[in-house]
């Protein structure tokens, strides 16, 4: 049997199949079910700083209006009298998940203010997380903000958090970065131990009857794998860090491709939400079979074997291939 072990963020993992941040970590039972199905680590759903702020503001409104939720609101009112109520539930839950499973648990954070990012990263560390994933989900909509300013802010933020927490740090990126290799290099220099490619931005839709904008959450399919696949293949060997591929992993073949591109781990959300947590066991046995049939002894041996640096046709990843592909249609 091929050896599926891999290393990610300094964590020794029994295989490269990690549960991506999703509602599946909202319950201890589903986290346990993920472990039983074979995943090697769990990334928790994100703690969002604006939820914390909003909860605080709502509480303030409810209390000052003296409405019927008063008694209920009082139950939640913190002893300190400030607004620091939001993260406690998340942190308690993280600690309970950590107690219930034997695999590493990675906290996930989406902050707003630099102070918030640092404070909650520290709290996630104190709650017992084995690592923290920084979910950089910011949509630039202001024409006055240049990309260089935003990128510098992110890099500074990673550096700030790196100096305040001891556990490993991963950064989950969006694909909408103009010079991704340079940005990736800066993040790693600032202290990121790993990069997670890519976050999926949920695209709003229009309801033409009601004339309102509607949120639209569509789960992924395997075609979406190709965007992170290309970028990990390009970055691997150029920017030395651990890569996690998220978006479009549904089968053992998707996983093998991701590893060959250079990912140390693959992260799965949509497949488990769509077809059940037990898919993890099937993906893992199929991967083992695939490795055996193709005479691979280990996962370690295949990581990066199809990265841009390793393939015979490196231009296939680049612009040169564009004209060829268009002409071949
Ligand atoms: C319902 C749902 C909730 C999610 N919540 C989070 C989250 O809290 N934090 C985060 O970083 N990513 C979140 N994601 C993104 C996933 O972790 C993952 O990166 C993305 O869905 C791509 O992987 P997939 O193709 O396996 O779904 C969520 C995805 C889904 C479908």
Rg to the nearest angstrom?
A: 21 Å
Structural category is alpha/beta
Query: Any ligands, ions or cofactors bound here, and which?
Result: flavin mononucleotide
What strand order characterises the main sheet? 3-4-5-6-7-8-11-12
The separation of the N and C termini measures: 41 Å
| Main sheet specs | 8 strands, parallel, barrel
Backbone shape:
globular
Say how many strands there are. 12
* Uncertain spans: 62-85
Which percent range describes the beta-strand content? 15-25%
Fraction of helical residues = 40-55%
Roughly what is the average pLDDT, rounded to an integer? 89
Give me the number of helical elements: 13
SSE pattern: EEEHEHHHEHEHEHEEEHEHEHHHH
Describe the protein:
This protein has 329 residues and is α/β, with parallel strands linked by helices. 43% of the residues lie in helices and 16% in strands. It has 13 helices and twelve strands. The protein has helices spanning 28-37, 49-65, 70-76, 86-100, 114-126, 147-162, 180-189, 226-235, 252-261, 270-275, 279-293, 299-302, 320-327; strands at residues 6-8, 11-13, 17-19, 41-48, 105-110, 131-135, 169-173, 194-197, 205-207, 212-214, 242-246, 265-268. The strands form three sheets. An eight-stranded parallel β-barrel has the order 3-4-5-6-7-8-11-12, surrounded by seven helices. The protein has a two-stranded antiparallel sheet with strand order 1-2. Helix 8 (226-235) runs parallel beside helix 9 (252-261). The longest helix has 17 residues, at 49-65. Bound molecules: flavin mononucleotide (FMN). Flavin mononucleotide (FMN) binds next to strand 4 and helix 10.
């Amino acid at each position: 049997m091929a050896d599926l072990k891999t290393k990610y963020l300094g964590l020794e993992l029994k295989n490269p199949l990690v549960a991506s941040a999703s509602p599946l970590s909202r319950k201890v039972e589903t986290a346990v079910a993920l472990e039983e199905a074979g995943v090697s680590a769990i990334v928790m759903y994100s703690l969002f700083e604006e939820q914390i702020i909003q909860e605080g503001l709502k509480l303030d409104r409810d209390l000052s209006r003296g409405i019927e939720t008063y008694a209920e609101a009082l139950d939640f009112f913190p002893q300190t009298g400030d607004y620091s109520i939001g993260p406690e539930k998340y942190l308690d839950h993280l600690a309970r998940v950590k107690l219930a499973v034997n695999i590493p648990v990675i906290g996930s954070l989406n902050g707003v203010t630099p102070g918030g990012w640092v404070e909650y990263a520290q709290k996630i560390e104190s709650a017992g997380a084995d690592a923290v994933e920084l979910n950089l989900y910011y949509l630039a909509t202001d024409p006055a903000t240049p990309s260089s300013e935003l990128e510098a802010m992110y890099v500074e933020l990673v550096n700030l958090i790196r100096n305040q927490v001891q556990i490993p740090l991963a950064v989950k990126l969006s694909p909408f970065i103009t010079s991704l290799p340079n940005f990736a290099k800066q993040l790693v220099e600032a202290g990121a131990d790993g990069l997670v490619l890519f976050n999926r931005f949920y695209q709003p839709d229009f309801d033409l009857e009601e004339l309102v904008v509607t949120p639209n959450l569509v789960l992924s399919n395997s075609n979406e794998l190709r965007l992170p696949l290309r970028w990990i293949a390009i970055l691997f060997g150029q920017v030395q860090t651990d890569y996690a591929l998220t978006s479009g992993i549904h089968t053992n073949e998707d996983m093998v491709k991701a590893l060959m591109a250079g990912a140390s781990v693959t992260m799965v959300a949509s497949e488990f939400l769509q077809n059940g947590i037990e898919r993890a066991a099937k993906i893992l046995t199929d991967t083992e079979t695939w490795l055996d049939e193709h005479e691979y002894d280990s996962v370690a041996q295949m990581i990066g074997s199809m990265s841009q640096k390793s393939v015979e046709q490196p231009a296939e990843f680049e612009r040169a291939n564009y004209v060829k592909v268009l002409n071949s249609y």
